[in-house]
DNA sequence: TTGAAAGCGCTAACAT
DNA sequence: ATGTTAGCGCTTTCAA
């Protein structure tokens, strides 16, 4: 490695390193002539500034951390959410001269410690949380030390933080309404833990639609399942067998697929099913179902924009961004 | 933000910052007493060293870059390879006090430029390439400037670089042999581009097994497909319909699924199918097929180990690592 | 418009 | 065993 420094450039160009710095940062008043000379040398020597030196003197890192808690990993592996989000974020940030560091907290207890280390060592300028958790203490902490971060998924204290999300109440309402209009009345609801806002909100939208049509929902048909196929499958099968079910609303295509296979296994393909995420997995079941495209790219980019604004201390008019989701029928 | 520095700690502990530095780096001889005093202050003030300053004076970054070329993105999205690899790498590296930066080259032409920037700006100490490409000029360049990197997937110039891979020739041989032993003779081979070493090697192993049993392979049954279901599906269907096929060897579960659906559609489920990657997608087809678990975690970790050794200038006995894959039958 | 010089927070060689 | 000091490579004030 040659390791050209600003001094080499300065010497060769016959100027001071301050001038080179000015040309590099593309700012301050430098005469056109000087600029051209310096630029020529920079290009000849293929000079690229040492980032550690820049970071030290500017007290930043130009790195945004993407944080994933390991509890989220399993569901995400069955999903393109993770890859899509990371790719979208990194693509967006790199256009803005920021890099993305990826932190996977494989140990929930260590999360605070990890993040504290990152923040205090100034290794990152900001953070993006891939998910909202029930426990928001880490958000609270970061807010206290006024460290920039944004969250994908509306947090409980939505007014305090920067976040992006779909309107889950509305999308669930729309999906449910669609099924009701197809003469469905006897619903099962399958979702993840009710501790997750996403489950709560979709449940709310679901109930709203039923209320509007004066359909009442039997709480015994509310299934909170683990994110693996078998769990939802088994619970569901019991209910369907013994009851007059004609529709199954689920909060994830994974559940929807489980549901589809369950009803196929007992030849009840007349039952309507809906899911979320517009997963490519839908290709792998015979019977298609309703789903919702949550637009992960957009969520990722909006979250990046928000945290970047905060980092750059730009004015933030609205502390959140609602990304439109889309009902997919075929 | 308080931004405690080494000076604050030194002052408070009544020692010089050199001593604090020694305590931090946990090295040199510091008296037990002094160490305890300093450690107390460090913990009281919750001091964490500024990474930019450390990086600048040590001329490193403690960051390893994971590079993905966008050409690879599409196939990877249908796969857990990407998420699994990134998570395994980052988990391993963080235990070794390294961070992972993720670079997605959305523009192949810019790859060299991006990487050059990362390297020259000293933003990364090493790189891990998630895939091997036919064009190895970037590897060649990095080798010339002796910048540490490793590759997941055996490169053409295997002796020159650090890499990890499975023994694809052997695994393909094993799979094929297994099918032959089940009295299969008339094979179709479906793989990606023959420019990819992985395709070439699996094809070689496939042919080796056939040769051993004196079965000859009709080259017209060699399908090089794009990584989307339809492509393989259509080509395949034509061949199967008109010929006496009894087995389909494929280099990816995605292809295997396409194949399975194709043969199901014409009621030829008597045909044996094999794939690669032990994908969770297998759950979503009726008829199961043979597959190979390539052990992505291990590949990722071995690649991390190799590049880390290079970064730390440790002696590297063998420049590659062959990770055992596993034939999965049910 | 340009340069000199201080300083960012740390490490490491040297001295004691 | 500990302190002094000179960098690391940049940015940024201040002066000219």
TrEMBL record, chains A, B:
GO molecular function: DNA-binding transcription factor activity; transcription cis-regulatory region binding
Keywords, ordered alphabetically: DNA-binding, Transcription, Transcription regulation
The organism's place on the tree of life at top rank: Bacteria
The HTH lacI-type domain, residue ranges: 4-58
InterPro entries, per database record: HTH_LacI, Lambda_DNA-bd_dom_sf, Peripla_BP_I, SBP_2_dom
Matching PROSITE patterns: HTH_LACI_1 (PS00356), HTH_LACI_2 (PS50932)
Gene3D superfamilies: 3.40.50.2300, lambda repressor-like DNA-binding domains
Protein name: Sugar-binding transcriptional regulator, LacI family
Organism: Oceanivirga miroungae
